Amino acid sequence: MNKFKLFLVAATLVYSTQTIAKGVRVDMYAMQKQMVTLIGANDSEEFQIAANNFLKAAQNAKNTMPASLDNEQDRFKGYQAGIQEVINTVQEAQELAREGKLDEAKTVVSKLDALKRQYHKQYK
């Protein structure tokens, strides 16, 4: 019976780790998809919808530690700060779009690609 309990605990840990890793991957994929929509938005309304979807995925990603961080809390804090910078960038762009400055909003969003490269290098 002890071996069975040990197996069950180990299986649960493996499953939770895989679920968390998938969660971050799914959120990152959603962010990428919305980034493409933000850049290609034809109007402020389309931009706002994509920005809201992006921000939901980014917030989920911020709250989930990627498996690549090996449960290192200091690195997780840096990862979260990076995601917050991404969130702040999209919120800035969202505000510009609300003001009717769609081209300026897209220019701000174009910074996301550089942020993505920078933080993927550090935390992926």
From TrEMBL:
Residues 1-21 form the signal peptide. The keyword Signal applies. GO terms for cellular component: periplasmic space. GO terms for molecular function: electron transfer activity; heme binding; iron ion binding. InterPro entries: Cyt_b562 (IPR009155), Cyt_c/b562 (IPR010980). SUPFAM superfamilies: Cytochromes. Binds 1 heme b (iron(II)-protoporphyrin IX) group per molecule. Keywords: Heme, Iron, Metal-binding, Signal. One of its GO terms (biological process) is electron transport chain. It comes from the Bacteria. Its cofactor is heme b. Heme b binds at M28, H120. Belongs to the cytochrome b562 family. This is Soluble cytochrome b562. It comes from Nicoletella semolina.
